Amino acid sequence: MTELDVAEVLWLTTVNDAGQPQSSPVWFHWDGEDALILSRPDAPKVANIKGHPAVSLHLNGGEAGTVVVSIEATARIEGGVSASRRDAYAERYRDGFARLGTDRASYFAEFSTAIVARPHRVRRFDTT
């Protein structure tokens, strides 16, 4: 099991057309090969990825910087998500949906754009 399997949030960093990095905390589902991130379709990160698919994903997997994971990835906007992947995402964030006062169907309707990020370089700093 890795930090990607247990972390609730990762930071997705995209770059806009002016070259300005934009970082966003996002929920995600890791399947062992790539990260699925769901977004509102009009979110700046979606436009940024369409123009610049190189992204960074960052995790702080331990207490006070004891484990830091930085991932370089290529992202793409997907037309759809398989039912099994959507179910796994929903199961992972069932408690999160409740904290937000929403349910699965409402969340998926609002966050209807799928971003898939495939890592090509991982850096891990661990002081434990």
Fold and architecture overview:
With 128 residues, this protein is α+β, with helices and mostly antiparallel strands. The chain has a single domain, classed as Pnp Oxidase, Chain A. Helices cover 28% and strands 41% of the residues. It has helices at 3-6, 44-51, 83-92, 94-100, 104-110, and strands at residues 10-15, 21-26, 29-30, 35-39, 54-60, 67-78, 113-126. Strands 2-1-5-6-7-4-3 form a seven-stranded antiparallel sheet. Strand 1 (10-15) and strand 2 (21-26) form a beta hairpin. The radius of gyration is 14 Å and the shape is globular.
CATH architecture: Roll
How far do the termini sit from each other? 17 Å
The SSE string, one letter per element, is HEEEEHEEHHHE
Q: Name the shape in a single word.
A: globular
> How many E strands?
7
Can you give me a brief rundown of this structure?
The chain has 5 helices and 7 strands; from the N terminus they run αββββαββαααβ. With 128 residues, the chain is of the alpha+beta class.
What attributes characterize this protein structure?
41% strand; Pnp Oxidase, Chain A; alpha+beta; 128 residues; 5 helices; globular; 28% helix; seven-stranded antiparallel sheet
SSE topology sketch:
Blueprint lengths: L2 H4 L3 E6 L5 E6 L2 E2 L4 E5 L4 H8 L2 E7 L6 E12 L4 H10 L1 H7 L3 H7 L2 E14 L2
Antiparallel strand pairs: 1-2, 1-5, 3-4, 4-7, 5-6, 6-7
